[in-house]
Amino acid sequence: MSDIRNTSSATPEQRENKILMVAMAIMVAICIILAIIGFCFLNKPDEIIEGQADATAIRISGKLPGRVMKIYVHEGDQVKAGDTLVHIHSSLAEAKLMQAEGMETVARTQNRKVDAGTRSQIIQAARDMVSQAEAAVEITKKTYTRMQNLYNEGVMSEQKRDEAKAAYDAAVAAHHAAQSQLSLAISGAQKEDKESAAAMVNVAKGGVAEVQSLLEDQYLIAPCDGQIDQVYPEESELVSLGAPIMSLLKLKDKWVTFNVREELLNDMPLGGEIEIMIPALGEKKTKAKIYYIRDLGSYATWQATKATGQWDSKTFEVKAHPLDTLPELRPGMSVVYFK
User: Fold this and answer.
1) What's the Cα-to-Cα distance from 300 to each of 50, 112, 128, 295, rounded to whole Å?
2) Coil, strand or helix: which one is 334?
3) What are the extents of the domains in the chain?
4) How many CA atoms lie within 13 A of 145 on its CB side?
5) Which of 323, 270, 321 is nearest to 293 (CA)?
6) Among 254, 211, 214, 217, which residue's Cα sits nearest to residue 60?
């Protein structure tokens, strides 16, 4: 009876507060129920892996140190394979070419002289010497024969006979020497001399070819189609041997690169296809095929921060070729993969 009296005796303000509290309790209960339902049915959001586009860059350089005389292209220009890019001048290389060509001329002249053999005048003189020796042999032989006959008759002394015999033997020896000289004159230079002269010609030709190979790099040409990315020197500047003159982008050879933790590689197998999105191209989506996976090393390892339940995770570099032709895709653009 007392409760009924208390309720009936409650003021309107108390009744209003009680109703408000009940409503708030009901709202809290509804929020808790909705939170439980949302937690049970909420899907985990996709993990975003961000990478970037890249392309093959070729550094244009040459073997000729010299001065940049003319640059025929500018950064951003599209070039074709075989287009002339730059002219490098080297007065030192041109002087060396003149010197090498002069040495080659000398070597060729010497080789022709050896191949031509002994001059005809020398050969004729050798023949004349042989003829004189033959005449001397004939005369001394006759003299010796007479002296021998007189000696046999007792008219000539033995000493005179021996003198005639010595003169005859000397004439025969002189004849043999003259014939040897004639043979040498006719045969010309020795085989070794000819081989040496020919070798010197080859050495001189090699020197000329070496300098000419350097001068071929006076004009550097584009090795492939592409776009000029950077030009390093200015005209009139000196460049050293092998110094890069400019870089050329092969825009047909483009790929995308991601650096991912190893536990995420299960969805990115080698040879597999993934869907990527390019924000700079109006969030364009396309397919890409993975062709390269490489461990980045210990410096890129994710260290575990908890004593239990986690482990160190290495970072891998993943590269993929877009399957669609995307001329507007530029190196450096961000690329997104939703796992």
Assistant:
1) 16, 70, 95, 9
2) strand
3) 2-35, 48-56+250-338, 118-188
4) 6
5) 270
6) 217
Percent of the chain with pLDDT strictly greater than 70: 75
For domain 48-56+250-338, give the CATH number.
2.40.30.170
Model confidence pLDDT, tens digit, residues 66-81: 888 899 999 989 999 9
Q: Tell me which CATH code domain 118-188 carries.
A: 1.10.287
Q: How many residues does the chain have?
A: 339
Distance from C-alpha of 117 to C-alpha of 122, rounded to nearest angstrom: 11
Strand 244-261 and strand 219-221: the pairing is unpaired
CA distance 81 to 230: 17
75: tokens are 């950064």
Tens digits of per-residue pLDDT, 105-119? 766 776 666 655 545
- Residue (of 264, 268, 262, 337) closest to 302 by Cα position: 262
Q: Is 52 helix (H, G, I), strand (E, B) or coil?
A: strand
